[in-house]
């Protein structure tokens, strides 16, 4: 048996410790019901389901969403509210010198974490609520438009969203990982019928447990 007082014994002790060779145990998640705050950033693209009526893809080719989550978590389950704004970019309509779009979404969401005690955990989520698309165009040939030559319009409607992602627990109360979402919804400009549209999005998400 190696004497721990000798250099060889020191090596044995170090290799047998839990932190040897990077084998650091994962930090245990907080127990019980606790508050969770999340932040999402990413990139999204509209999906066109038909050629009928107005579609977000008429104005937007790519968008950059920023979302905030607030809710409560009990081990595997999270229930809360997600609010998100996406800044769109695309080709402006003819006879306009500039344009901009913003899409707002707000509604409840639920997330199920499959292996919360592991260093990296997989999760699935389901959300829904109300979405509003604002777009602004500037037409240099029209002098009688409100606000000078600027036109602002909006379309609103419902949405349902399927989510998936990974959570890597960096600290006991801090998690980080990628996320993906597929959204189906309908928007209209004040006159039915609503037009079904979709979004495919992905990015990075951080979450803090309190």
| Helix proportion | under 10%
Largest sheet: 8 strands, antiparallel, barrel
Give the N-terminus to C-terminus distance in angstroms.
47 Å
How does the helix and strand content classify structurally? mainly beta
Assign the CATH architecture. Beta Barrel
Q: Output the strand order for the largest sheet.
A: 1-2-3-4-5-6-7-8
Percentage of residues in DSSP E strands: over 45%
Q: Unreliable runs, pLDDT <50, ≥5 residues?
A: 4-25
Q: What is the overall silhouette?
A: elongated
Question: What is the C-level CATH assignment?
Answer: Mainly Beta
What is the structure about, briefly put?
The chain has 210 residues and is mostly beta strands. The chain has a single domain, classed as Porin (Beta Barrel). Helix content is 4%, strand content 61%.
Describe this structure in words.
The protein is mostly beta strands. It has one domain (23-209): Porin (Beta Barrel), CATH 2.40.160.20. It is 4% helix and 61% strand. It is built from one helix and eight strands, in the order αββββββββ. It has one helix at residues 7-15; strands spanning 33-48, 62-74, 77-89, 98-113, 120-138, 150-171, 174-187, 195-209. An eight-stranded antiparallel β-barrel has the order 1-2-3-4-5-6-7-8. The longest helix has 9 residues, at 7-15. It is elongated. The two termini are 47 Å apart. 25% of the residues are buried.
């Amino acid at each position: 048996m190696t004497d721990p007082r000798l250099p060889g014994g020191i090596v044995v002790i170090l290799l047998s410790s839990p932190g040897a060779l990077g084998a650091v145990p994962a930090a245990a998640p907080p127990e019980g019901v606790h508050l969770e705050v999340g932040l999402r950033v990413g990139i999204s693209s509209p999906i066109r389901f038909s050629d009928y009526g107005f579609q977000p893809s008429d104005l937007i080719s790519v968008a950059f969403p920023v979302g905030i989550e607030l809710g409560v978590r009990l081990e595997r389950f999270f229930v809360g509210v997600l609010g998100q704004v996406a800044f769109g970019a695309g080709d402006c309509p003819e006879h306009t010198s500039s344009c901009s779009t913003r899409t707002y979404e707000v509604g409840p969401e639920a997330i199920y974490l499959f292996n919360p005690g592991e260093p990296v955990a997989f999760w699935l989520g389901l959300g829904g609520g109300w979405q509003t698309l604002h777009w602004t165009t500037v037409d240099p040939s029209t002098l009688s438009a409100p606000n000078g030559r600027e036109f602002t319009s909006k379309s609103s409607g419902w949405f349902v969203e399927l989510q998936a992602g990974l959570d890597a627990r960096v600290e006991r109360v801090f998690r980080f990982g990628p996320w993906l979402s597929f959204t189906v919804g309908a928007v209209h400009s004040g006159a039915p019928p609503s037009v079904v549209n979709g979004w495919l999005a992905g990015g990075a998400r951080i979450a803090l447990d309190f």
